Amino acid sequence: MSPSGSLAEGEETEMITDDTLWEQGVAVIGMSGRFPGASDLEGFWQMLCEGRHGIRFFTEEELRENGVPEEQWKDPGYVRAKGMLSGPELFDAAFFGMPPREAEWTDPQQRLFLECSYEALESAGWVPDRYEGRIGVFGGCSMSTYLLHRIALQQGALGQDAESLILGCDKDFLTSRTAYKLNLRGPAVTVQTACSTSLVAVHLACQSLLSGECDMALAGGSSVSFPNAAGYRYQEGMILSPDGFCRTFDSEAQGTVPGNGVGVVALKRLELAAADGDPVYAVIRGSAANNDGGLKAGFTAPSPEGQAEVIADALAVSGVHPETIGYVEAHGTATPVGDPIEIAGLTRAYRQWTERSGYCAIGSVKSNLGHLDCAAGVAGLVKTVLALHHRKLPPSLHYHEPNPQLRLEDSPFYVQTQLGDWPEAGHPRRAGVSSFGIGATNAHVILEEAPSLKRDPSTRPWHVLPVSAGTETALEAAAERLREHLTSRLPGPADVEEIAYTLQVGRRGFPLRQAVVCRNGAEAVHRLGLPDTREPGQQAPGELRDAAWLFLPWRESDAEGLIELYRTEPVFRQHLQERLTAAEQASGLVLQEPVAALAAGSPGGEAPLLTGRSWTVVSMAASYSLGLTLQDMGLQPGRVGGEEEGEAVAAILAGLCTWDEAVRRAAEAAEPGGAVFTEARGVPVAVQPRAEKLHASPVHTKQAGRPAIDEVQAVLRTPGHRVIVFGSPPSDEDGVIGCHDSHSLSAALAALWTDGAEVDWQARYRLEKRQRVHLPTYPFERQYYSFLPPLQAEAPPPRSSAQEPLSPKNPIDGGEEPNPRTELETTLIRFHSEVLGLPEEEIRTDVPFYELGADSLSMTQIISRIQKAYPFPLNVRQLYEAQTIAELADSIEWSVLDLLEQEEERSEA
């Protein structure tokens, strides 16, 4: 570095750091957020690029309707503005296994954080139940004004709901609730540092990842205040603006605007993210947190020394030179005191390494959204990550001329006032993000644009795009979301493979399913737009009755499909090569060389021809290898059958013989015995006797006659089963799926998965380096849950049990509901309805309590009602051990019988 501290031309741009923890960095692999004026990240980025703000200015009618007293909004100092979320009371309770009463008791801050956490994981291409590592969650939320309004409405008396409301609204339970609902087994740490909460949460998540405490982490914050549509009272000299605008760094800046929002990012060590093929938005190169201590004007006052120190610490641990920073997302509260102190702190930190001025853009998302309190830091982080991802610098709003106290001309910074390209500068694009809390807990993060990650070239011509949901309407919405996403991009074959891979391995398989098979984006868009041809009804994953596998010989016309599979399906190719190697040793035939020659597109020449016997063995090997490929993916046959050499493959899978035995038999052209129908290892086997010998001839001669397969299919095909035909293409019949080339293999997998089979999609790609990509997330079906009346402008849809999705924890709608057997069961159903908030007609007496959404607290409340209704000694232990309403009724009845017997014994004595 030059004596002045600036970089000389061509000089190394990295600083030396001793912090080996940060050597690889932390990848931002997924994000989700809801901000004022933007319900998702796509809308958020569009708003930023267009230079719009999301501040809402309310009418008198809206304020009156939302319960704001007239004397407040008529006060001259009352500002009718707020960065308001649309419909924060709306929530998909059934998706997360929450009964309606629990959803109503839970603060919308925590509900939205839960939704965004799930979306961030899906954005990263992961679902918790498929991730073997530990996922941590770090975050915080604001004080629960939702609970305060409940207390006010009930005049301070919460009664028997007090404990439930505290569990649902207290800030302490934000991350532990998320970990419970999403089954996350890493650390769940609730962070509270006021305005810097969510960026401190990101810092702590990075530390946890780098120390190996967890393998993936969610981090963010949530802030939703009530009443939702309400302004604030301006006080001169305080932090809030007098007119509802946040003019960060401007000469007329007078404060910020309160706002609501929630944001969550999914993080992983960069090295691990690259190995897992994760989509990387950007990389966190370093982060730091500190506190100003007591050397400042007051508890709420900021300190340039403390801010400079945390920024310098973040730069030091990142090893990044400040001259390579192209943008800083400032805390930017637009106060006459705060803005100059922030610029002073930044300048002091940067001046430790550089004397350059005016080279780094600066801005603040508060000019768009207002101050989101505990979610402010993550909002700035998400904005900056999107800027790096799109290589654009969005404008900071309401800036016309600088506050002269900033002395920007003597600093490294200038305010970004227009949308512009983020220029290349001979090094990766980099940025800093600041967040400073009241009480002076400060955080700063150094970001870098994502590196180019390698992936294998696409060879697979056909791809499966699976879509699933918990309800029919959600399934339609999910398919439409995907169709719109593809329409806006029209990806080519290589990109469609990554899209298919992400949908297959990065989404949960819900009960209602559909899938399309396509070669490119245009085909996918067309087929997603076609009417869904699935049969009505729903089937839980894994409940499909096993399919039957029928193995037919591969004929001359099938060679092209076999070779296509060899070229495009690495797992199939590996199995086939292993089978052919073993077959060569067992039979003395030459098999690998001619197959490889065909795959290379050069049949003939010096390569041996596939004669009748050798083709028979290749045919067997191809069928067996396809079967093994499906078994690798978790699919097993219920029945197997075969014709000609396919008989041997069926026998192998049924355990009747080994591969080597089958090869020797085929090579010797031995005649099979009569028709066999037997049981082997619990698998029914149907075998058709060979109708004719396969003539000894090269593979390219006229196809041999094909025997009838009706008898075998009749034996195998039973109602409700699929028949998968390996080898020669089957006739076009309902329930019969061919599996003989790339298209038919993909179609077979799509059909089986749609039927409800659990397919291990990852096994298909185990020999490939595939890349996850960012795709639309689950279409939550939100309904209104709140004790506060909704605004008429945001009237919620009526709550309907038909919209409740079936989830593992909430299969309330499945099956017919048995009528209560007794008056006691009817009473118990009423108690469950009162506590859980479920309609009585939706509560079954034979469904386990946990599937109704009950937990230990709600069961305590139910048993308390039972004890009040039946004031005689009950065996409480037996009541708690009951798993269903029917069992609970039995326990009560047995307690009554015991009491009667005791009374009878006493009377006899």
Characterise the protein shown here.
Strands 7-6-8-10-1-11-18-17-12-13-15 form an 11-stranded mixed β-sheet, sandwiched between helices. The protein has 31 helices and 27 strands. It has 4 domains: 28-284 and 295-449, 3-Layer(aba) Sandwich (Peroxisomal Thiolase, Chain A, domain 1); 463-528, Alpha-Beta Plaits (2-Layer Sandwich); 548-757, Malonyl-Coenzyme A Acyl Carrier Protein, domain 2 (3-Layer(aba) Sandwich), CATH 3.40.366; 815-908, Non-ribosomal Peptide Synthetase Peptidyl Carrier Protein, Chain A. α18 (559-568) packs across α19 (570-587) and α27 (823-836) packs across α31. Helices cover 37% and strands 15% of the residues. It is of the alpha/beta class and 909 residues long. It starts with 25 loop residues before the first strand and ends with a helix. A hairpin with a 2-residue loop joins β23 and β24.
